[in-house]
From TrEMBL:
Keyword tRNA processing: yes
Keyword set, alphabetical order: GTP-binding, Nucleotide-binding, tRNA processing
Species annotation: Marasmius oreades
InterPro entries recorded: G_TrmE, GTP-bd, GTP-bd_TrmE_N, GTPase_MnmE, MnmE_dom2, MnmE_helical, P-loop_NTPase, Small_GTP-bd
Protein name, as recorded: TrmE-type G domain-containing protein
Entry keyword GTP-binding: yes
GO biological process annotation, one example: tRNA methylation
Pfam families: MMR_HSR1, MnmE_helical, TrmE_N
Cellular location(s): Mitochondrion
GO cellular component, one term: mitochondrion
PROSITE patterns registered for this protein in UniProt: G_TRME (PS51709)
Protein family per UniProt: Belongs to the TRAFAC class TrmE-Era-EngA-EngB-Septin-like GTPase superfamily. TrmE GTPase family.
TrmE-type G domain sequence ranges: 281-451
An MF annotation (GO) of this entry: GTP binding
Length: 533
Protein backbone atom coordinates (compact mmCIF):
# COMPACT_ATOMS: atom_id res chain seq x y z
CA UNK A 1 0.00 0.00 0.00
CA UNK A 2 1.23 3.48 -0.92
CA UNK A 3 0.19 6.85 0.46
CA UNK A 4 -0.31 9.44 -2.30
CA UNK A 5 -0.11 13.13 -1.36
CA UNK A 6 -2.07 15.63 -3.42
CA UNK A 7 -1.51 19.20 -2.24
CA UNK A 8 -2.54 19.53 1.41
CA UNK A 9 -4.94 16.61 1.27
CA UNK A 10 -3.97 12.98 1.55
CA UNK A 11 -5.68 9.73 0.85
CA UNK A 12 -4.91 6.06 0.79
CA UNK A 13 -4.83 4.15 -2.48
CA UNK A 14 -4.16 0.49 -2.94
CA UNK A 15 -1.97 -0.26 -5.94
CA UNK A 16 -1.66 -3.99 -6.57
CA UNK A 17 1.30 -3.91 -8.95
CA UNK A 18 3.67 -1.73 -10.92
CA UNK A 19 1.73 -2.46 -14.08
CA UNK A 20 -1.44 -1.03 -12.61
CA UNK A 21 0.41 2.21 -11.86
CA UNK A 22 1.21 2.62 -15.53
CA UNK A 23 -2.13 1.50 -16.89
CA UNK A 24 -4.62 3.01 -14.47
CA UNK A 25 -3.08 5.99 -12.74
CA UNK A 26 -3.46 8.42 -15.62
CA UNK A 27 -4.96 8.08 -19.10
CA UNK A 28 -1.98 9.81 -20.75
CA UNK A 29 0.64 7.15 -20.00
CA UNK A 30 2.25 8.84 -17.02
CA UNK A 31 4.75 6.89 -15.01
CA UNK A 32 6.65 6.66 -11.75
CA UNK A 33 9.91 8.64 -11.88
CA UNK A 34 12.41 8.91 -9.03
CA UNK A 35 9.73 8.94 -6.40
CA UNK A 36 7.42 11.20 -8.41
CA UNK A 37 4.50 10.43 -10.67
CA UNK A 38 4.80 12.86 -13.57
CA UNK A 39 1.88 13.71 -15.83
CA UNK A 40 1.03 16.55 -18.17
CA UNK A 41 -1.32 18.10 -15.65
CA UNK A 42 0.20 17.47 -12.21
CA UNK A 43 2.91 15.67 -10.25
CA UNK A 44 2.06 13.03 -7.70
CA UNK A 45 4.57 12.29 -4.95
CA UNK A 46 4.94 8.82 -3.50
CA UNK A 47 6.12 8.21 0.01
CA UNK A 48 7.77 5.00 -1.15
CA UNK A 49 10.13 4.99 -4.15
CA UNK A 50 9.13 2.77 -7.06
CA UNK A 51 10.06 2.56 -10.74
CA UNK A 52 7.79 1.44 -13.58
CA UNK A 53 9.48 0.47 -16.84
CA UNK A 54 7.52 1.38 -19.96
CA UNK A 55 7.84 -0.16 -23.39
CA UNK A 56 8.55 1.94 -26.48
CA UNK A 57 4.90 1.63 -27.47
CA UNK A 58 3.85 3.12 -24.11
CA UNK A 59 6.43 5.94 -24.29
CA UNK A 60 4.54 8.09 -26.78
CA UNK A 61 6.61 11.23 -26.10
CA UNK A 62 9.63 11.45 -28.40
CA UNK A 63 12.60 13.82 -28.52
CA UNK A 64 15.55 14.59 -30.79
CA UNK A 65 17.99 17.30 -31.83
CA UNK A 66 16.27 18.94 -34.80
CA UNK A 67 19.09 21.27 -35.84
CA UNK A 68 22.33 20.05 -37.47
CA UNK A 69 24.91 18.81 -34.98
CA UNK A 70 28.05 20.87 -34.50
CA UNK A 71 29.09 24.27 -33.22
CA UNK A 72 26.54 27.00 -33.91
CA UNK A 73 24.71 29.84 -32.21
CA UNK A 74 21.54 27.87 -31.51
CA UNK A 75 20.58 24.22 -31.27
CA UNK A 76 16.94 23.14 -31.22
CA UNK A 77 15.71 20.11 -29.32
CA UNK A 78 12.18 19.06 -30.18
CA UNK A 79 9.87 17.07 -27.92
CA UNK A 80 6.48 15.82 -29.15
CA UNK A 81 3.82 13.74 -27.48
CA UNK A 82 1.21 13.67 -24.73
CA UNK A 83 3.76 14.35 -21.99
CA UNK A 84 5.54 17.30 -23.61
CA UNK A 85 4.26 19.61 -20.85
CA UNK A 86 5.61 17.18 -18.23
CA UNK A 87 9.03 17.47 -19.86
CA UNK A 88 8.69 21.23 -19.62
CA UNK A 89 7.89 21.01 -15.89
CA UNK A 90 10.78 18.65 -15.23
CA UNK A 91 13.50 20.40 -17.24
CA UNK A 92 12.80 24.12 -17.32
CA UNK A 93 13.05 26.74 -14.61
CA UNK A 94 12.80 30.50 -14.49
CA UNK A 95 15.89 32.70 -14.22
CA UNK A 96 15.36 32.75 -10.44
CA UNK A 97 15.25 28.97 -10.21
CA UNK A 98 11.52 28.68 -9.57
CA UNK A 99 9.04 26.72 -11.66
CA UNK A 100 7.93 28.30 -14.89
CA UNK A 101 4.40 29.69 -15.06
CA UNK A 102 1.94 27.84 -17.30
CA UNK A 103 3.03 28.08 -20.93
CA UNK A 104 1.63 30.64 -23.31
CA UNK A 105 1.46 28.61 -26.53
CA UNK A 106 3.46 29.71 -29.57
CA UNK A 107 5.42 32.30 -27.59
CA UNK A 108 9.16 32.09 -26.78
CA UNK A 109 9.99 32.15 -23.09
CA UNK A 110 13.37 32.70 -21.40
CA UNK A 111 14.34 29.77 -19.18
CA UNK A 112 17.07 27.74 -17.57
CA UNK A 113 17.51 24.09 -18.50
CA UNK A 114 18.14 21.85 -15.48
CA UNK A 115 18.61 18.15 -14.84
CA UNK A 116 15.38 16.54 -13.59
CA UNK A 117 17.20 14.50 -10.88
CA UNK A 118 19.03 17.55 -9.54
CA UNK A 119 17.17 20.77 -10.44
CA UNK A 120 19.93 22.86 -8.90
CA UNK A 121 22.24 21.72 -11.73
CA UNK A 122 21.83 24.26 -14.53
CA UNK A 123 22.74 22.85 -17.95
CA UNK A 124 22.23 25.98 -20.05
CA UNK A 125 20.35 29.25 -20.44
CA UNK A 126 17.93 29.22 -23.35
CA UNK A 127 14.49 29.79 -24.77
CA UNK A 128 11.49 27.50 -24.93
CA UNK A 129 8.29 27.56 -26.95
CA UNK A 130 5.27 25.34 -26.43
CA UNK A 131 2.94 24.39 -29.31
CA UNK A 132 -0.37 23.08 -28.08
CA UNK A 133 -1.87 20.34 -30.22
CA UNK A 134 -3.48 20.07 -32.66
CA UNK A 135 -2.02 23.42 -33.79
CA UNK A 136 1.50 22.06 -34.13
CA UNK A 137 3.57 20.33 -36.78
CA UNK A 138 2.86 16.84 -35.41
CA UNK A 139 -0.71 17.75 -34.26
CA UNK A 140 0.44 16.77 -30.73
CA UNK A 141 1.73 18.93 -27.90
CA UNK A 142 5.24 20.00 -28.92
CA UNK A 143 7.99 21.61 -26.86
CA UNK A 144 11.04 23.15 -28.49
CA UNK A 145 14.05 24.06 -26.37
CA UNK A 146 16.51 26.49 -27.97
CA UNK A 147 19.96 26.16 -26.43
CA UNK A 148 23.55 26.93 -27.35
CA UNK A 149 24.72 24.41 -29.91
CA UNK A 150 27.94 23.26 -28.28
CA UNK A 151 28.41 19.51 -28.37
CA UNK A 152 28.67 19.19 -24.58
CA UNK A 153 25.55 21.29 -23.96
CA UNK A 154 23.44 19.35 -26.47
CA UNK A 155 24.65 16.03 -25.06
CA UNK A 156 23.87 17.12 -21.50
CA UNK A 157 20.32 18.22 -22.32
CA UNK A 158 19.57 15.09 -24.33
CA UNK A 159 20.91 13.00 -21.48
CA UNK A 160 18.67 14.88 -19.04
CA UNK A 161 15.60 14.14 -21.17
CA UNK A 162 16.59 10.48 -21.41
CA UNK A 163 16.26 10.28 -17.62
CA UNK A 164 12.51 10.83 -17.95
CA UNK A 165 11.09 7.30 -18.31
CA UNK A 166 8.10 8.38 -20.35
CA UNK A 167 10.32 9.81 -23.14
CA UNK A 168 12.28 7.99 -25.82
CA UNK A 169 14.54 9.11 -28.70
CA UNK A 170 12.72 9.70 -31.99
CA UNK A 171 13.24 7.40 -34.95
CA UNK A 172 14.28 8.93 -38.32
CA UNK A 173 11.29 10.76 -39.78
CA UNK A 174 9.05 10.07 -36.79
CA UNK A 175 8.02 13.70 -36.25
CA UNK A 176 6.94 13.93 -39.89
CA UNK A 177 5.25 10.51 -39.67
CA UNK A 178 3.12 11.83 -36.81
CA UNK A 179 2.25 14.90 -38.89
CA UNK A 180 1.13 12.54 -41.65
CA UNK A 181 -0.84 10.31 -39.26
CA UNK A 182 -2.48 13.40 -37.77
CA UNK A 183 -3.58 14.66 -41.20
CA UNK A 184 -1.26 17.67 -41.20
CA UNK A 185 0.53 16.48 -44.36
CA UNK A 186 -0.27 14.05 -47.13
CA UNK A 187 2.35 11.76 -48.65
CA UNK A 188 3.28 14.13 -51.49
CA UNK A 189 3.88 16.93 -48.97
CA UNK A 190 6.02 14.57 -46.88
CA UNK A 191 8.13 13.80 -49.95
CA UNK A 192 8.29 17.50 -50.80
CA UNK A 193 9.51 18.30 -47.29
CA UNK A 194 12.22 15.66 -47.54
CA UNK A 195 13.25 16.96 -50.97
CA UNK A 196 13.32 20.53 -49.61
CA UNK A 197 15.72 19.49 -46.86
CA UNK A 198 18.01 17.84 -49.43
CA UNK A 199 17.65 20.49 -52.16
CA UNK A 200 21.02 21.61 -53.54
CA UNK A 201 20.00 23.68 -56.56
CA UNK A 202 17.49 26.45 -57.23
CA UNK A 203 15.28 24.26 -59.40
CA UNK A 204 15.16 21.57 -56.71
CA UNK A 205 14.26 24.17 -54.07
CA UNK A 206 11.42 25.65 -56.14
CA UNK A 207 9.83 22.28 -56.95
CA UNK A 208 10.24 20.91 -53.41
CA UNK A 209 8.83 24.05 -51.78
CA UNK A 210 5.74 24.02 -53.96
CA UNK A 211 5.27 20.30 -53.36
CA UNK A 212 5.60 20.69 -49.60
CA UNK A 213 3.09 23.54 -49.80
CA UNK A 214 0.45 21.19 -51.17
CA UNK A 215 0.34 22.06 -54.89
CA UNK A 216 0.77 18.45 -56.01
CA UNK A 217 -1.72 17.34 -53.39
CA UNK A 218 -4.39 19.58 -54.85
CA UNK A 219 -3.75 18.43 -58.42
CA UNK A 220 -3.75 14.72 -57.59
CA UNK A 221 -6.83 15.13 -55.39
CA UNK A 222 -8.62 16.94 -58.23
CA UNK A 223 -7.74 14.05 -60.55
CA UNK A 224 -9.01 11.50 -58.03
CA UNK A 225 -12.22 13.49 -57.47
CA UNK A 226 -12.89 13.54 -61.23
CA UNK A 227 -12.46 9.75 -61.43
CA UNK A 228 -14.83 9.31 -58.48
CA UNK A 229 -17.35 11.57 -60.23
CA UNK A 230 -17.29 9.28 -63.27
CA UNK A 231 -17.60 6.29 -60.94
CA UNK A 232 -20.63 7.87 -59.26
CA UNK A 233 -22.42 8.20 -62.60
CA UNK A 234 -21.74 4.56 -63.41
CA UNK A 235 -22.82 3.45 -59.93
CA UNK A 236 -26.05 5.43 -60.33
CA UNK A 237 -26.67 3.59 -63.58
CA UNK A 238 -26.19 0.27 -61.78
CA UNK A 239 -28.60 1.25 -58.99
CA UNK A 240 -31.36 2.85 -61.03
CA UNK A 241 -30.83 1.97 -64.69
CA UNK A 242 -31.68 4.24 -67.59
CA UNK A 243 -35.20 4.89 -66.41
CA UNK A 244 -37.25 7.76 -65.11
CA UNK A 245 -34.84 8.49 -62.28
CA UNK A 246 -31.85 9.15 -64.57
CA UNK A 247 -31.31 11.27 -67.65
CA UNK A 248 -30.49 9.48 -70.88
CA UNK A 249 -26.88 9.13 -71.96
CA UNK A 250 -25.37 8.93 -68.46
CA UNK A 251 -23.01 6.14 -69.47
CA UNK A 252 -21.86 8.01 -72.57
CA UNK A 253 -21.25 11.10 -70.47
CA UNK A 254 -19.15 9.04 -68.05
CA UNK A 255 -17.19 7.62 -71.01
CA UNK A 256 -16.48 11.08 -72.45
CA UNK A 257 -15.27 12.42 -69.11
CA UNK A 258 -13.16 9.31 -68.59
CA UNK A 259 -11.55 9.77 -72.02
CA UNK A 260 -10.55 13.30 -71.06
CA UNK A 261 -9.09 11.97 -67.80
CA UNK A 262 -7.13 9.36 -69.75
CA UNK A 263 -5.68 12.07 -71.99
CA UNK A 264 -4.78 14.15 -68.93
CA UNK A 265 -2.96 11.27 -67.26
CA UNK A 266 -1.09 10.47 -70.49
CA UNK A 267 0.06 14.09 -70.71
CA UNK A 268 1.46 13.75 -67.19
CA UNK A 269 3.23 10.50 -68.10
CA UNK A 270 4.68 11.88 -71.36
CA UNK A 271 6.70 14.55 -69.57
CA UNK A 272 10.18 13.32 -70.50
CA UNK A 273 10.73 12.58 -66.78
CA UNK A 274 11.28 16.27 -66.05
CA UNK A 275 10.22 16.13 -62.41
CA UNK A 276 12.30 13.07 -61.60
CA UNK A 277 15.31 14.58 -63.39
CA UNK A 278 15.05 17.81 -61.38
CA UNK A 279 14.82 15.85 -58.15
CA UNK A 280 17.46 13.19 -58.81
CA UNK A 281 19.75 15.11 -61.13
CA UNK A 282 20.52 14.96 -64.85
CA UNK A 283 22.97 12.16 -65.58
CA UNK A 284 25.62 13.53 -67.92
CA UNK A 285 28.42 11.27 -69.18
CA UNK A 286 31.71 12.66 -70.48
CA UNK A 287 33.25 10.35 -73.07
CA UNK A 288 35.77 10.40 -75.90
CA UNK A 289 39.19 9.07 -76.90
CA UNK A 290 42.15 9.09 -74.48
CA UNK A 291 43.91 12.38 -73.71
CA UNK A 292 41.15 14.54 -75.20
CA UNK A 293 40.69 16.42 -71.90
CA UNK A 294 37.79 14.56 -70.23
CA UNK A 295 39.28 14.52 -66.75
CA UNK A 296 40.47 18.12 -67.11
CA UNK A 297 36.88 19.08 -67.97
CA UNK A 298 35.57 17.28 -64.88
CA UNK A 299 38.09 19.13 -62.70
CA UNK A 300 37.04 22.44 -64.25
CA UNK A 301 33.35 21.76 -63.63
CA UNK A 302 33.98 20.56 -60.08
CA UNK A 303 36.44 23.43 -59.39
CA UNK A 304 38.79 20.97 -57.72
CA UNK A 305 41.14 18.12 -58.59
CA UNK A 306 38.46 15.44 -58.64
CA UNK A 307 40.23 13.34 -61.29
CA UNK A 308 43.87 12.50 -61.92
CA UNK A 309 45.21 14.16 -65.07
CA UNK A 310 48.35 12.91 -66.83
CA UNK A 311 49.56 12.78 -70.47
CA UNK A 312 49.61 8.98 -70.25
CA UNK A 313 46.72 7.37 -72.19
CA UNK A 314 44.48 5.15 -70.04
CA UNK A 315 44.98 7.10 -66.79
CA UNK A 316 41.22 7.06 -66.09
CA UNK A 317 40.03 3.48 -65.83
CA UNK A 318 36.88 3.59 -63.72
CA UNK A 319 33.80 5.80 -63.53
CA UNK A 320 34.21 8.95 -61.42
CA UNK A 321 30.99 10.84 -60.58
CA UNK A 322 30.58 14.38 -59.24
CA UNK A 323 27.27 16.13 -58.40
CA UNK A 324 27.21 19.71 -59.70
CA UNK A 325 24.93 22.71 -60.14
CA UNK A 326 24.93 23.75 -63.80
CA UNK A 327 22.59 26.56 -64.75
CA UNK A 328 20.54 26.01 -61.60
CA UNK A 329 20.00 22.34 -62.46
CA UNK A 330 21.34 19.34 -60.54
CA UNK A 331 23.73 17.41 -62.78
CA UNK A 332 25.57 14.19 -61.97
CA UNK A 333 28.66 14.27 -64.19
CA UNK A 334 30.46 10.99 -64.88
CA UNK A 335 34.04 10.93 -66.18
CA UNK A 336 34.77 7.76 -68.12
CA UNK A 337 37.77 5.88 -69.46
CA UNK A 338 39.12 6.85 -72.86
CA UNK A 339 37.55 4.77 -75.64
CA UNK A 340 40.13 2.77 -77.58
CA UNK A 341 41.22 -0.78 -78.33
CA UNK A 342 43.55 -2.02 -75.59
CA UNK A 343 45.20 -5.23 -74.46
CA UNK A 344 45.22 -4.09 -70.82
CA UNK A 345 42.61 -6.17 -68.98
CA UNK A 346 41.81 -3.51 -66.39
CA UNK A 347 41.56 -0.71 -68.94
CA UNK A 348 39.33 -2.82 -71.19
CA UNK A 349 36.91 -3.31 -68.29
CA UNK A 350 36.88 0.46 -67.80
CA UNK A 351 36.14 0.98 -71.50
CA UNK A 352 33.15 -1.38 -71.36
CA UNK A 353 31.86 0.40 -68.26
CA UNK A 354 32.27 3.73 -70.03
CA UNK A 355 30.14 2.56 -72.96
CA UNK A 356 27.42 1.35 -70.61
CA UNK A 357 27.36 4.63 -68.64
CA UNK A 358 27.09 6.68 -71.85
CA UNK A 359 24.20 4.55 -73.09
CA UNK A 360 22.35 4.88 -69.77
CA UNK A 361 22.91 8.62 -69.32
CA UNK A 362 20.26 11.29 -69.90
CA UNK A 363 22.68 13.35 -72.01
CA UNK A 364 26.32 12.86 -73.03
CA UNK A 365 29.21 15.17 -73.83
CA UNK A 366 31.80 13.93 -76.30
CA UNK A 367 35.20 15.55 -75.73
CA UNK A 368 37.53 15.58 -78.73
CA UNK A 369 40.93 17.10 -79.44
CA UNK A 370 40.40 19.83 -82.05
CA UNK A 371 43.80 19.42 -83.78
CA UNK A 372 43.12 15.68 -84.22
CA UNK A 373 39.46 16.05 -85.21
CA UNK A 374 39.96 18.95 -87.64
CA UNK A 375 43.51 18.81 -89.01
CA UNK A 376 43.04 21.90 -91.21
CA UNK A 377 41.08 25.11 -90.71
CA UNK A 378 39.89 24.82 -94.31
CA UNK A 379 37.94 21.71 -93.40
CA UNK A 380 34.46 21.90 -91.92
CA UNK A 381 33.63 18.22 -91.43
CA UNK A 382 34.81 16.68 -88.20
CA UNK A 383 36.69 13.40 -88.29
CA UNK A 384 35.07 11.38 -85.51
CA UNK A 385 37.14 8.45 -84.14
CA UNK A 386 35.60 5.06 -84.92
CA UNK A 387 35.62 4.14 -81.21
CA UNK A 388 33.29 7.07 -80.47
CA UNK A 389 30.84 6.90 -83.42
CA UNK A 390 28.56 4.09 -82.08
CA UNK A 391 27.80 6.13 -78.93
CA UNK A 392 26.68 9.33 -80.69
CA UNK A 393 22.91 9.91 -80.43
CA UNK A 394 20.48 12.82 -80.46
CA UNK A 395 21.37 13.26 -76.76
CA UNK A 396 25.04 13.97 -77.52
CA UNK A 397 26.86 17.33 -77.48
CA UNK A 398 30.46 17.99 -78.53
CA UNK A 399 33.27 19.84 -76.79
CA UNK A 400 36.29 20.47 -79.01
CA UNK A 401 39.27 20.99 -76.71
CA UNK A 402 42.81 22.30 -77.21
CA UNK A 403 42.04 25.34 -79.36
CA UNK A 404 45.34 26.75 -78.09
CA UNK A 405 47.13 24.03 -80.11
CA UNK A 406 45.15 24.75 -83.26
CA UNK A 407 47.49 26.90 -85.38
CA UNK A 408 44.71 28.78 -87.16
CA UNK A 409 42.09 31.31 -86.00
CA UNK A 410 39.12 29.66 -84.28
CA UNK A 411 36.78 32.66 -84.53
CA UNK A 412 33.21 31.47 -85.28
CA UNK A 413 34.51 27.94 -85.67
CA UNK A 414 31.47 26.43 -83.90
CA UNK A 415 29.04 27.85 -86.45
CA UNK A 416 30.58 26.20 -89.52
CA UNK A 417 31.48 22.75 -88.21
CA UNK A 418 29.46 19.76 -89.32
CA UNK A 419 29.33 16.07 -88.56
CA UNK A 420 29.84 13.22 -91.04
CA UNK A 421 26.87 12.19 -93.16
CA UNK A 422 24.19 10.20 -91.35
CA UNK A 423 24.65 11.84 -87.93
CA UNK A 424 22.10 14.31 -86.48
CA UNK A 425 22.69 18.04 -86.13
CA UNK A 426 24.22 18.49 -82.67
CA UNK A 427 25.64 21.23 -80.41
CA UNK A 428 29.35 22.23 -80.61
CA UNK A 429 31.62 24.28 -78.37
CA UNK A 430 35.32 25.01 -78.92
CA UNK A 431 37.44 25.62 -75.81
CA UNK A 432 40.90 25.39 -74.34
CA UNK A 433 40.86 23.80 -70.91
CA UNK A 434 44.49 24.80 -70.35
CA UNK A 435 44.06 28.53 -71.10
CA UNK A 436 40.35 28.95 -70.27
CA UNK A 437 39.42 30.20 -73.75
CA UNK A 438 35.71 29.69 -74.51
CA UNK A 439 34.86 28.09 -71.16
CA UNK A 440 32.45 30.82 -70.06
CA UNK A 441 30.50 30.53 -73.31
CA UNK A 442 30.51 26.74 -72.98
CA UNK A 443 29.01 26.81 -69.46
CA UNK A 444 26.25 29.19 -70.48
CA UNK A 445 25.52 27.13 -73.59
CA UNK A 446 25.48 23.85 -71.66
CA UNK A 447 23.04 25.23 -69.08
CA UNK A 448 20.70 26.49 -71.83
CA UNK A 449 20.97 23.18 -73.69
CA UNK A 450 19.99 21.22 -70.59
CA UNK A 451 17.00 23.51 -70.00
CA UNK A 452 15.93 23.16 -73.63
CA UNK A 453 16.61 19.44 -73.92
CA UNK A 454 14.41 18.53 -70.96
CA UNK A 455 11.81 21.23 -71.69
CA UNK A 456 12.36 22.86 -68.30
CA UNK A 457 12.07 26.40 -69.66
CA UNK A 458 8.39 25.76 -70.44
CA UNK A 459 7.73 24.86 -66.80
CA UNK A 460 9.40 28.04 -65.57
CA UNK A 461 7.64 30.35 -68.05
CA UNK A 462 4.19 28.84 -67.45
CA UNK A 463 4.57 28.62 -63.69
CA UNK A 464 3.59 24.94 -63.87
CA UNK A 465 5.61 22.46 -61.87
CA UNK A 466 6.14 18.87 -63.05
CA UNK A 467 3.31 16.59 -61.94
CA UNK A 468 5.53 13.55 -61.41
CA UNK A 469 8.53 14.03 -59.14
CA UNK A 470 9.01 10.47 -57.83
CA UNK A 471 9.13 7.09 -59.53
CA UNK A 472 6.23 5.84 -57.42
CA UNK A 473 4.02 8.69 -58.72
CA UNK A 474 4.65 7.43 -62.25
CA UNK A 475 3.97 3.83 -61.25
CA UNK A 476 0.60 4.64 -59.66
CA UNK A 477 -0.44 6.89 -62.56
CA UNK A 478 0.44 4.16 -65.04
CA UNK A 479 -1.71 1.76 -63.02
CA UNK A 480 -4.60 4.23 -62.97
CA UNK A 481 -4.24 4.72 -66.72
CA UNK A 482 -4.49 0.97 -67.35
CA UNK A 483 -7.66 0.71 -65.27
CA UNK A 484 -9.22 3.67 -67.09
CA UNK A 485 -8.34 2.16 -70.47
CA UNK A 486 -9.93 -1.10 -69.30
CA UNK A 487 -13.13 0.79 -68.37
CA UNK A 488 -13.30 2.30 -71.85
CA UNK A 489 -13.39 -1.21 -73.35
CA UNK A 490 -16.75 -1.95 -71.70
CA UNK A 491 -20.15 -0.93 -72.98
CA UNK A 492 -23.36 -0.15 -71.12
CA UNK A 493 -24.13 -3.85 -70.70
CA UNK A 494 -21.02 -4.33 -68.53
CA UNK A 495 -21.38 -1.35 -66.20
CA UNK A 496 -20.68 -3.45 -63.10
CA UNK A 497 -17.25 -4.50 -64.41
CA UNK A 498 -16.59 -0.98 -65.65
CA UNK A 499 -17.36 0.47 -62.22
CA UNK A 500 -14.75 -1.81 -60.67
CA UNK A 501 -12.11 -0.56 -63.10
CA UNK A 502 -12.86 3.06 -62.16
CA UNK A 503 -12.78 2.18 -58.48
CA UNK A 504 -9.31 0.66 -58.90
CA UNK A 505 -8.19 3.74 -60.84
CA UNK A 506 -9.31 6.06 -58.03
CA UNK A 507 -7.49 3.89 -55.49
CA UNK A 508 -4.28 4.00 -57.55
CA UNK A 509 -4.34 7.82 -57.59
CA UNK A 510 -5.21 7.85 -53.89
CA UNK A 511 -2.05 5.90 -53.11
CA UNK A 512 0.04 8.78 -54.43
CA UNK A 513 -1.12 11.14 -51.69
CA UNK A 514 -1.49 8.40 -49.08
CA UNK A 515 -5.29 8.53 -48.92
CA UNK A 516 -5.25 4.78 -49.43
CA UNK A 517 -3.38 2.59 -46.97
CA UNK A 518 0.15 2.03 -48.28
CA UNK A 519 2.16 0.81 -45.28
CA UNK A 520 4.87 -0.70 -47.46
CA UNK A 521 5.46 2.70 -49.05
CA UNK A 522 5.26 4.69 -45.81
CA UNK A 523 8.13 2.88 -44.12
CA UNK A 524 10.39 3.48 -47.12
CA UNK A 525 9.50 7.18 -47.28
CA UNK A 526 9.97 8.07 -43.63
CA UNK A 527 13.16 6.11 -42.96
CA UNK A 528 15.01 8.42 -45.39
CA UNK A 529 14.44 11.42 -43.11
CA UNK A 530 17.07 12.61 -40.68
CA UNK A 531 16.48 12.08 -36.97
CA UNK A 532 14.68 15.09 -35.55
CA UNK A 533 12.45 15.57 -38.60
Amino acid sequence: MYRILTGNASRLATIPSRLSIVQNAHPRRSTVFSGKFWSSSSSWKFTKHDTAVLSDAQRRTIYALSSPPGKAGVGVIRISGPDASAVRDALLRSSRGSSLPPPEPWKLQRCRVVHPKSPEQVLDDGLAVFFRGPKSFTTEDVLEIHIHSGRAIVAAVLNAISNLPFCRPAEPGEFTRRAFDGGRLDLTQVEGLRDLIHAETESQRVVALRTAGGELRERFERLRTDIIHCLAMVEALIDFGEGEDLEEGVFEQAREETKRLSETIQSYLNDNRRGEIIRNGIRLAIFGPPNAGKSSLLNFLAQRDAAIVTPIPGTTRDILEVSLDIGGLPVVVADTAGLRQTEDVVESIGVERAKRIVQESDISLCVLSLPETLPSVSQTQLQIPSSVLPLITTNTCFLLNKTDLFHSPTTRLDTRLRLPEGLPDLKFWSVSLSTGEGLSKFLQGLGSTLQEHFNLQADQSSGQMPMITHARHRSHLETASRFIEAFLQYDVNDVVLGAEELRYAAQAVGKISGLIDVEDVLDAVFRDFCIGK
